[in-house]
From TrEMBL:
It comes from Seonamhaeicola marinus. InterPro entries: SCO1/SenC, Thioredoxin-like_sf, Thioredoxin_domain. The lineage of its organism: Bacteria, Pseudomonadati, Bacteroidota, Flavobacteriia, Flavobacteriales. Cu cation binds at C72, C76, H156. This is SCO family protein. Disulfide bonds join C72-C76. Pfam families: SCO1-SenC. CDD domains: SCO.
Amino acid sequence: MNTFKLFLCLAVVTFGCKRVEKKIPIVSSNLNKPESVKKLEAFEIYNHLGEKVALNSYKGQLQVVNFFFSTCPSICPAMENEIEGIATTNRSEDVVFLSVTINPEQDTIPVLWDHASQFLNKPENWFFLRTEPEDLLTVAKMYLATIDTSQNQFYHTSNAVLIDTDLNIRGLYDLLNSQEVDFLKEDIAILLKEKD
């Protein structure tokens, strides 16, 4: 009789519980509005390779975007270590990692090249970007980032922004919080499965 009860309990647990798939909400769809797509295309943005890129050209790929500057002595190294780890495990062309400098006057293309070269295992899908100084605040605002470059004091949040293939912002994750980094990894995997 006890064996039957045990079997019945196992059957209920095994077959009675459906696995709930996590759905990732859309935080903002501002990036995929026609006026935003035009702005994303119009910005003068260059990567560390010296190539001009349009931010809307990444539509169709997942994007993980963060803000930094090359001489940042505090949070940037820890943030970049997390991005490097995530990017190394997601080398697919389906995901691109974009680190945008908040100090474009200092972080010229050669400086960004040198900075990128510090990461010996830097995946080919991780790019360091610079925009024109006059476009920086608009770009940051579009990605829901908080930055301050007034009075030569450089401040930025430690967030990474996850953007889906349709340019919807799906989440903001604090790269200095290990639990949120785990959530970011998990959400990238979920969105990659949705893409397939």
